[in-house]
Structures are given as structure tokens and as C-alpha cells.
Specification:
The complex is a heterodimer of chains A (338) and B (226). Chain A is built from twelve helices and 14 strands. With 338 residues, chain A is α/β, with parallel strands linked by helices. In chain A, the strands form three sheets. A ten-stranded mixed sheet of chain A has the order 3-4-5-6-9-10-11-12-13-14, covered by helices on one side. In chain A, helix 1 crosses helix 2 and helix 4 packs across helix 5 (161-172). Chain A starts with a strand and ends with a helix. Chain B has 226 residues and is α/β, with parallel strands linked by helices. Chain B has two domains: 4-97, Translation factors (Elongation Factor Tu (Ef-tu), domain 3, Beta Barrel), CATH 2.40.30; 111-224, Rossmann fold, CATH 3.40.50.80. Chain B has six helices and twelve strands. Chain B has helices at residues 4-11, 83-87, 121-128, 150-157, 178-183, 200-212; strands spanning 15-26, 29-35, 45-49, 57-60, 69-75, 94-97, 111-116, 135-141, 161-165, 174-175, 193-198, 220-224. Classes of the chains: A alpha/beta (338), B alpha/beta (226). The A-B interface holds A 110-113, 115, 120-121, 123-124, 159, 193-194, 197, 215-216, 219-220, 223-227, 229, 231-232, 235, 238, 289-292 and B 5, 8-9, 11-12, 45, 55-56, 58, 101-104, 199-201, 203-204, 207-208, 211-212, 216-218, 220-224, 226.
């Protein structure tokens, strides 16, 4: 049966009219779906009994419960959700003082094949619907307290652009979760057409996985470099007016002896010149069968300081949930199901 | 000399070209061509669009770099926006393409080329450009009719051209996937480059396998079709 959860206001209005229900039923449904703590159509008590019966005969509410949860010593939780097509995805909830950030997946597996990422090792198994993306926030116990959302879980968001944009509409609309887009960051490895559409149609922040400023090095880490070279990604970002509120950041996993030298600092300064941005340095979390090593703390700190000294705002992202494989690059349902 | 910004803008700009040929070389697999206006390195890609207001898709060039035409090999995806239309275009139709670009190219040093399906395209371009002498080409497919250009490759490369078929069997074709074929090789050379082209899972599995057999990751270059 088709799910109501994951539909936009326009879609809900359209289906109301199609069923012969008043137009305002669409708005009422949106409030029940995205703003209240119910999980069935029967509980939509301001709809007429007839309307609820009619809806229930054709649709289901559409929430999916996580089937497994793991908790890290640092409080990070990792949820395993089944998808409609019989696959599984992971979602991380990362508490930090008064913030609760949810890291959502946008695809089952991933097509991008980055050398340092566990998700790519399970291949690509399917796209998530907008409902399945938003369900990862709505259907965890902490959903009322979620302050930030990052699209940095399994998959490449801009390889599932339509559903990702739809999920952003549900999260940021007044009729939806009414979240500020400034509390949402979508991360990409640089799928240029999708990135430009996202910049046009959403106000959420953008994060770009860079990992090295040099083309030849990036190509060996990230096959996407062949199709969408970093210079094209940077060129498009430079041409975009991010305004005062919107942020672009670059993600940079620091590998020992590979991308942590003064030469890299120099090149980063060169290619990012003219972009108001920040760099997030990320510790590498080792995965099986990958010959890369994370850089040591001392070098990481020095690398950060060098970039800050050159005027590029640079931070080191805290590693969270490493013991339950919830940290950056470790999400893989191979592990959680195994 | 154009400024760097102008160069980048021009490099990815879509320009109109007239299709000169469109041949279905295997069920659902087409080879489309247009007049070559720019030099390229074999292994490079082009973006193709039906119109400038629709996001282009990326395809490897599948012709030699001194041939008069650029050719591109593509699978028709039934739910795709571009390929069902592209499959139907006739010579004279205008399509939009970028100049060739990309960094997936080889030199004349010994190397292994590993592809599945239409991932053969960049290697066929390299072959047609005359750099196949020191190469081993391994092509994987599910069906025997998916070994595009096999007659020409077999004739020219002989034992250095290996076909792996996971769904059907035939003489001179390894029965199984590429990973099984590579897994059975005792001593893979570890001091040469490996070029991989195809779908993500093949690339990831082959890359892991090569690394487990002692090949350095720096010697593995991959292009993923997505």
C-alpha cells in the first residue's frame, strides 16, 4: 500500500481532491504526518470518519521503525532501518551538549566507490524515497530534540536528487517539520549538475568532500574525479553567491603521508581563494582492506593551524561513534546485519 | 592564452554537433558518432545532452584519437532521460556535447585494462589510438553478445584479450566473473598500472582484490559508471 508519509503538501492536496475530499484535508494531513506524534491514519482525528476510512483503504501512514539500535560509549546511536525494497540503511544520532545531530542516508549503498569508505564496499542497492529519508529523523526516539541534520550517511545525495530535494522541502516547509535550512547540511562528492540544482532550489548548507586539492591524488581516492573534476566543482562554487547566511564547507579526511603536507596547505589556499568557506578536517577511521592510514594527532593539529594561519577557517571534526562503526566513512549494513 | 576561469568555463560548455551515425551494435547498446572537432586523450569523456537546459550525462569516448569522428557507446536505460531519446536519433540530428575532458588515460607502459559491459569504451579508444601493445585487456559480461568489438580485439590482441562471462559459456571465454578470474591468478604483476572501468561494485571488488594481492592503490585508476 502506498505511504502518505513522504508526500509534499501539494501531493497531499492532489490526492485529497482525487478522493473527493476537501482541499484543506491535505493541509490537515501534513500537520498529522510531520508535526504530531501519531503513527496511523485513524489517529488523524480532525478528519471525518469517512475521510479516514477512505484514506485507510488506499494508503498507509508509512512510518517504518528501526529494527536495531547500537549505542556508543560517547552516546552516539546508530539505527538500522529496513527499506520498502527489502534492503537496510543506517542512521546515526550524535548528541553533543545541547545539540542532537542526525546523520541520514540518501541511498542504499553507494555508487561512488571511494577508496576510504565502507559504504561503497557494499555496492549500490537502490534509491531511498523522500519518505524513507525523512523517516530516519521522524522515527527515532529523539526526533523532538533534533537540532541539526546532515546528509552524510550512506549514499551520494545528488545521485538521488529528486528525492533528496523533496525530503528537504518536507523538513523545511512550514507545513512540514518547519526546520531552518541553516540547520541542514547536504554533503556531496561533487556531482555538479545535482549540486547546482540543489543550490538553486534549497537554502541548506553545502559540504563538498575534497580530501586533496590535487587532481592526480584525488583520482586515486575518488573515481568521481574522472567525471567531475575538482576544478569544475570549485569553478561552479566560485560562481555561486552564497549570501551571508548560507555556508559552504569542504570535508577533508587527513591521511598519513598522503594529503597532510605544507604543499597541500599551499594548494588548498590557492584553489579556495575567493570562496568564503571552512574546512572540516576529519580523522580517518580505518576500514578492512584499505591501505590508507590516518595521520597522527600532532600532524593533524599542525595542518589545521597552518590553514588557519593562512586565513582559511579550519576545524577538526570530533570522531563520534567509532566503537559502533557509526563514525564518518564506516556506515555499512554489511556490518550491522552481520 | 585564456584566463583560468575562461578556460574552465569553455571546457565544460555544451556545444551543438550533428550526429553522423547511430548504430545498435548489440540489443539495447548503441554507438553514436559525430565529427571530431577537438583533440583528446584516449580514455577521456564527454558530456552529452539533448538540450542545454537539461543536465548532461557523461560518456567515455569510444574511438581512436586520430579518427575523423568521435564515437560514444551507451546502454539504453528504459527509465533514463537521455538514452531512450539518443537511441532514436538519426544522422543530422543536433545534440549538445562538451569538449573531451578527464584524466583517465594511459601511456605506452605495460598495464592491465579491466572492464565490464560498456566500460570497455575507454579501452577500445586506447586500443584504436595505438597504445595496446603492452596491455592485457580483461572484459567481463553477463552474456556473450555483450563483448563489444570482440572480433577486432581478439584478432589484434590474441591471448592478451580475455573475456569473462558469468551467464553463458563458450570456447575461449572464461566461465565466471572477472573477480574469479583474477583471484585464480597466482602472481599478478604488482609493478604496473591497473585501469578499471565499469559499475561501482566491480570496481570496488576488483580494487580490493588487487590490493590484497600486493598491488599498490596508487597503481589503480578507476572510472565508475553511475
Amino acid at each position: 500500500m502506498e505511504a502518505l508519509f513522504g508526500k509534499t503538501l501539494n501531493e497531499l492536496i492532489a490526492l485529497s481532491l482525487e478522493l473527493g475530499l476537501p482541499k484543506f484535508t491535505g493541509k490537515q494531513m501534513a500537520e498529522w504526518l510531520y508535526q504530531k506524534d501519531i503513527s496511523s491514519i485513524v489517529e488523524m482525528t480532525n478528519l471525518s470518519k469517512k475521510a479516514r476510512e477512505l484514506l485507510s483503504s488506499k494508503y498507509e501512514f508509512g512510518l517504518t521503525n528501526p529494527i536495531k539500535v547500537q549505542e556508543s560509549v560517547d552516546g552516539t546511536k546508530k539505527y538500522l532501518f529496513p527499506t520498502a525494497k527489502g534492503k537496510f540503511i543506517e542512521t546515526a544520532m550524535i548528541p553533543d551538549d545541547d545539540r542532537k545531530t542526525v546523520c541520514v542516508s540518501s541511498q542504499v549503498g553507494c555508487k561512488m566507490g571511494c577508496l576510504f569508505c565502507m559504504t561503497g564496499k557494499q555496492g549500490f542497492q537502490g534509491q531511498l524515497t523522500a519518505g524513507e529519508i525523512v523517516n530516519q529523523i521522524r522515527n527515532i526516539p529523539e526526533w523532538h530534540d533534533v537540532t541539526n541534520i546532515v546528509y552524510m550517511g550512506m549514499g551520494e545525495p545528488f545521485d538521488n536528487l529528486e528525492q533528496v530535494l523533496k525530503s528537504l522541502e518536507i523538513l523545511t516547509s512550514e507545513w512540514g517539520f518547519a526546520m531552518s535550512p541553516r540547520r541542514i547540511t547536504v554533503s556531496t562528492i561533487g556531482i555538479v549538475p545535482g549540486m547546482m540544482t540543489f543550490l538553486n532550489q534549497s537554502e541548506a548548507h553545502l559540504a563538498v568532500s575534497m580530501h586533496t586539492p590535487f587532481d592526480d591524488e584525488r583520482q586515486k581516492l575518488m573515481p568521481v574525479q574522472v567525471a567531475y573534476p575538482l576544478q569544475e566543482v570549485i569553478h561552479e562554487i566560485k560562481s555561486w553567491d552564497f549570501g551571508r547566511q548560507r555556508r559552504v564547507s569542504f570535508e577533508y579526511i587527513v591521511f598519513k603521508g598522503l594529503n597532510d603536507s605544507p604543499r597541500h596547505v599551499q594548494e588548498l589556499c590557492k584553489i579556495l581563494n575567493g570562496i568564503k568557506c571552512r574546512i572540516n578536517l576529519i580523522r580517518f577511521h580505518s576500514i578492512p582492506g584499505t591501505p590508507l592510514e590516518g595521520t597522527d594527532e600532532n600532524t593533524l593539529q599542525k595542518f589545521k593551524d597552518m590553514l588557519n594561519d593562512k586565513g582559511i577557517l579550519t576545524t577538526i571534526r570530533a570522531s563520534r561513534g567509532q566503537d559502533i562503526y557509526a563514525a564518518c566513512g564506516l556506515l555499512s549494513t554489511k556490518e550491522m546485519l552481520g | 592564452m585564456p584566463k583560468a576561469e575562461e578556460y574552465q568555463k569553455n571546457q565544460f560548455q555544451l556545444i551543438p554537433v550533428c550526429v553522423t551515425g547511430n548504430e545498435e551494435i548489440s540489443p539495447g547498446v548503441h554507438l553514436i558518432s559525430w565529427k571530431r572537432e577537438h583533440d583528446f586523450y584516449p580514455g577521456q569523456v564527454v558530456k552529452i545532452a539533448a538540450e542545454t537546459n537539461i543536465a548532461p550525462r557523461i560518456y567515455s569516448i569510444c574511438s581512436g584519437n586520430d579518427e575523423p569522428e568521435i564515437r560514444v557507446l551507451f546502454n539504453v536505460k528504459e527509465d533514463g532521460l537521455l538514452t531512450p531519446w539518443l537511441a532514436g536519433v538519426v544522422p543530422g540530428t543536433e545534440i549538445w556535447v562538451t569538449k573531451p575532458y578527464g584524466s583517465f588515460y594511459d601511456d605506452k607502459k605495460p598495464a592491465w585494462w579491466i572492464a565490464t559491459g560498456t566500460g570497455i569504451a575507454p579501452f577500445y579508444s586506447m586500443f584504436r589510438s595505438g597504445i595496446s601493445e603492452n596491455k592485457i585487456l580483461i572484459h567481463g559480461a553477463r552474456q556473450l553478445n555483450q563483448f563489444y568489438f570482440e572480433d577486432e580485439l581478439e584478432w589484434a590482441m590474441g591471448d592478451r584479450y580475455v573475456r569473462c562471462c558469468s551467464g553463458e559459456q563458450a570456447c575461449n571465454v572464461f566461465p565466471g566473473r572477472i573477480t574469479r578470474y583474477l583471484g585464480e591468478i597466482k602472481n599478478l604483476p604488482t609493478d604496473i598500472n591497473y585501469y578499471l572501468c565499469g559499475k561501482a561494485l566491480m570496481v570496488v571488488e576488483v580494487r580490493d582484490l588487487l590490493i590484497s594481492k600486493g598491488v599498490r592503490y596508487e597503481n589503480i585508476l578507476a572510472e565508475i559508471y553511475f
